[in-house]
Design brief:
Blueprint: E1 7-12, H1 16-25, E2 31-34, E3 39-44, H2 47-59, H3 66-81, H4 88-99, H5 107-112, H6 132-142, E4 143-151, E5 159-170, H7 174-184, E6 188-192, E7 196-202, H8 204-217, H9 223-239, H10 246-256
Antiparallel strand pairs: 1-3, 2-3, 4-5, 5-7, 6-7
Length: about 260
Amino acid sequence: MKSKQRFQIELNRKDEGLLKLIQAYFGGIGYIHNVGKDCLAFRVSTLDHLVKIIDHFDKYPLITQKLADYKLFCSVVAMMRLKEHLTQEGLEKIVAIKISHNLGLSEKLQAAFPNIIPVSRPKVENKKIPHGEWLAGFVSGEGCFFVNIKKKSNLNTGFQVILSIQVSQHIRDEELLKSFVSYLGCGGYNNIKNKHGVWVASGLSDILNILIPFFLEHPIRGVKGEDFTDWCRVTELMKDKKHLTLSGLEEISEIKAGMNRDRPV
């Protein structure tokens, strides 16, 4: 049975250009691969190349609970560089690590190694947001800019426009998401289903006075930057009260129709 490590960043295929920039940043190592109808992944699996990835994240540490997975990943890479994975004992040690890593073992591996005791998952203390560029990068990968239009009978147009930004994570990173509130000075945290939590900010005043200036100073990258630009366009229309007119509402609806999942490739 072979042991293989891999580093991967998966994004919507609309962000192929961003994946290519990441690949270029690491000196052209790895490859970009189709992983589904709408997704591409930048993958690195050669041991010598994985060392470059590790050097980067040692210099710029992860903050979320993914740091625990990273530490386990590094321990396996170190074992493989020493060729320990070629021995039965070394392979069993790697399986014990994999049980605690990411999604754990597949059914096939569970059947092949039924008596392996998992290693303890490294503890990751609640981390703080280090700087604005980190937060912008995190939102570029994990955030969404929303324009919602809902029926509101007491308005002349019959509809209400609501803007929001959301960042969701596993509940293990609850404290990190809560720190968005204090760092940015707006929004709030809520638990949602399936062991996830979300930081949400809305309200035109906070968007105009806090969030848009922040993300103009610390730009959103990739295709999500286009969503941010459209979000800002809607904000300007709302600032001018155009969302209270039928023509303005129609313009906002057209902008919304090309955002997020509906944005053309």
